Amino acid sequence: MLNNLLFITIRWLDIVDILLVSIIMYQLYKLVKGTVAIKIFLGILAIYLFWKIAAALKMELLSEILGQFIGVGVIALIVVFQQEIRRFLLLIGNNRIFSSKNGKLFKLLQVNKDEKPKLNTTQLINASRNLARSKTGALIILDLHSELKLYTVSGEKINAKISSSLLENIFFKNSPLHDGGVIIQNNEIKAARCILPVSENQSFPNHFGLRHRSAAGITEVSQAIAIIISEETGKISFSKQGEIKHNISIDDLEKNILAEL
Ligand SMILES: Nc1ncnc2c1ncn2[C@@H]1O[C@H](COP(=O)(O)OP(=O)(O)OP(=O)(O)O)[C@@H](O)[C@H]1O
Question: Where does the DAC domain lie (predicted)?
Answer without folding.
Answer: 82-250
